[in-house]
Amino acid sequence: MHAMQNTTTSNGVALSDLKLLLAIASTGNLGGAAKQLGVDHSSAFKKLGALERRIGARLFDRSRNGYRPTPAGEAAIEAAKRISDELLTLERRVLGEDTRLSGVVRVTTTDTLLHVVFPMIAEFRAIEPGIVVEISVANAIYDLSRRDADIAIRPSAVVSEQLVARRVGTVASAVYARADAAWAGEFKSASDQAWVAPDASLSHASSARWIAAHVPLAQIVLRADSLIALMQAAKSGIGATVLPCYLGDSEPLLTRVTPVLEDAAVPLWLITHPDLRHVRRIAALTEFLSQRLQREAARFEGRPVA
């Protein structure tokens, strides 16, 4: 038989005592608890007696039908469950999968960044095949504190101080229109042509703020909840729009009709939660993405790519 470990808590109660309490509570008798813990009946009996003497209270009423917890026993069992849950949480965090370069990492980013991020994920997967990446595409701000995702890649003017944010670039934007539009080479003012614009769900986006500040409301002929949709609308000739340069420059049918908009630039962040940054698989992907995203500085800033 295996001896129960005698690591003790701060009040002198051994962790093995807590395991014994939980085993008796789950099986209803001392013999079943001893078998569950891998010890002999005599050892379990002596340990329970020693625990009751140390606490100064009877924890179980013994009868022919088994062991029934006393009020003191019920309180002790409840405390044991709570401590056991906390220990399991700690164990999962510092041992198990969190110490291995394997498992799932959840990443959230915008639809506009997919053509930039996916080649990076493919390269990472070739290096670390044990890590499975789950991608969630959403324009809304994800709540990392609730583990909606482990890593966020997002352009944003501000980031919560409660999160660990690494700035990996600056995202520039410009006005884009269909390359063969009659006015594309002679853009003069926002009042001269039709516009397609983000809807209220994208009000936090730099493009939405720029259009709200510079484009007359009467000139907006279409709204959408996705910058990809706005790119497609502009490509179809419906109107001009503001796009991140890394997105607008990737579409051959579009052309920039303005220089980079200085008042529409925003930082690009790689974000994790403080509790997760030391999990090896998350740290590995975070570091890899940080290096690769910083290499794309010219593309993000709207400069010629070498």
UniProtKB/TrEMBL annotation:
<dbReference type="InterPro" id="IPR036388">
    <property type="entry name" value="WH-like_DNA-bd_sf"/>
</dbReference>
<dbReference type="Pfam" id="PF00126">
    <property type="entry name" value="HTH_1"/>
</dbReference>
<feature type="domain" description="HTH lysR-type">
    <location>
        <begin position="13"/>
        <end position="70"/>
    </location>
</feature>
<dbReference type="InterPro" id="IPR000847">
    <property type="entry name" value="LysR_HTH_N"/>
</dbReference>
<keyword id="KW-0238">DNA-binding</keyword>
<protein>
    <submittedName>
        <fullName>LysR family transcriptional regulator</fullName>
    </submittedName>
</protein>
<dbReference type="Pfam" id="PF03466">
    <property type="entry name" value="LysR_substrate"/>
</dbReference>
<dbReference type="InterPro" id="IPR005119">
    <property type="entry name" value="LysR_subst-bd"/>
</dbReference>
<comment type="similarity">
    <text>Belongs to the LysR transcriptional regulatory family.</text>
</comment>
<keyword id="KW-0804">Transcription</keyword>
<keyword id="KW-0805">Transcription regulation</keyword>
<dbReference type="InterPro" id="IPR058163">
    <property type="entry name" value="LysR-type_TF_proteobact-type"/>
</dbReference>
<dbReference type="InterPro" id="IPR036390">
    <property type="entry name" value="WH_DNA-bd_sf"/>
</dbReference>
